[in-house]
Design a protein that fits this description.
Strand order of the largest sheet: 3-2-1-4-5-6
Distance between the termini: 57 Å
Largest sheet: 6 strands, parallel
Bound molecules: nicotinamide-adenine-dinucleotide
Structural class: alpha/beta
Order of helices and strands: EHEHEHEHHEHEEHEHEHHHHHH
Number of helices: 14
Length: 298
């Protein structure tokens, strides 16, 4: 049993904290949103009146926050988590944030005498609830090893990707592939429609040919071929287009920082930006096919 503070009990954080409780850990939690605190209490998380008071007695502090500014504020701002905890506490940040913020958080943690990892996730709300997330870990060998048993209670795959920030780097590279490939698959279906191909015929060929990819075979953007995909559920997320846009923007900021050529990543960012601007923010990201079919005049 480990004493864990869990900060940020939103769509992802709450089911993750609940899995830590189920694994037998003592979890104290904090979120600004009273409704999140209420749901967390029902899941067995002990409510604290601030992040600092949740963290005061903890061996491990897990954060699951929206963006880099929230992470830095939680670590270093008023009511700092780093100032509230004892030396050598393990800090695990599971949020998806920009690499620069992740590194600032690591540096602040090291300065305060803490161990830290960035450990963003893949698998979405469903994976968080089922405890089947993939964690992409950045940080020292010592910190990554210490984080492993905690992460194992919330996920099924843990990859130590390298030094501080490497988890965030892996996450945004993966999601750039995903954003680009979903657009590619969507364009192919829209082209196939215009050429008189049925969705099923194109799926049967491409899913067993060189066009095969996750966006096609696990998350097909047209209803029918993959019954569990959001296309069969009115494009309810799943993974909302607004979150895809966030990750694509992070990929483009990182690409600019290191002068990496990501022409398709940039184009995908613009298409998702237009889709979100046209009201698609809360739609599953695979709904971009409908935007391509209409707004792009296909
Ligand atoms: P969310 O908005 O549902 O939850 C974030 C919570 O953090 C909110 O409840 C907010 O009140 C709380 N919060 C913000 N600052 C805080 C602070 N200082 N102290 C305490 N609570 C604070 O977001 P989410 O969907 O749970 O996503 C969290 C992170 O996970 C994001 O970085 C997101 O990009 C990433 N992510 C989300 C998904 C997904 O499918 N939702 C998938 C993979 C990764």
């Amino acid at each position: 049993m480990t004493k864990i503070a869990f900060i940020g009990l939103g769509n992802m954080g709450l089911p993750m904290a609940a899995n830590l409780v189920r694994a037998g850990h003592e979890v104290a939690g904090f979120d600004f949103a009273p409704a999140a605190m209420q749901r967390a209490a029902e899941a067995g998380v002990v409510g604290a009146d601030s992040g600092a008071s949740a963290a005061a007695d903890a061996d491990v502090v897990v954060t699951m926050l929206p963006m880099g500014k929230h992470l830095i504020d939680a670590y270093c701002g008023a009511g700092s988590l780093l100032a509230a905890t004892k030396p050598k506490t393990l800090f695990i940040d599971c949020s998806t944030v920009d690499i620069a913020s992740a590194r600032i958080a690591h540096e602040a943690a090291a300065k305060a005498g803490m161990l830290s990892v960035d450990a963003p996730v893949s698998g979405g709300v469903g994976g968080a609830a089922a405890g089947t997330l993939t964690f992409m870990v950045g940080g020292s060998d010592e910190a990554a090893k210490a984080a492993e048993p905690i992460l194992a209670a919330m996920g099924k795959k843990i990859v130590h990707c390298g030094a501080a920030g490497a988890g965030q780097a892996a996450k945004i590279c993966n999601n750039m592939i995903l954003g680009v490939s979903m657009i590619a698959v969507s364009e192919a279906f829209v082209l196939g429609e215009k050429l008189g191909l049925s969705h099923q015929a194109l799926f049967d060929v491409a899913s067993t040919s060189s066009g095969q990819c996750w966006s096609l075979t696990s998350y097909c953007p047209v209803p029918g071929p993959v019954p569990a995909s959001p296309a069969n559920n009115s494009y309810k997320p799943g993974f909302a287009a607004a979150l895809m846009l966030k990750d694509l923007k992070l990929s483009q900021a990182a690409a600019e920082d290191v002068d990496a050529p990501t022409a398709l990543g940039l184009h995908a960012t613009r298409i998702f930006d237009d889709f979100v601007g046209a009201g698609g923010a809360e739609t599953d990201f695979s709904g971009v096919i409908n935007f391509i079919r209409t707004a792009h005049g296909a």
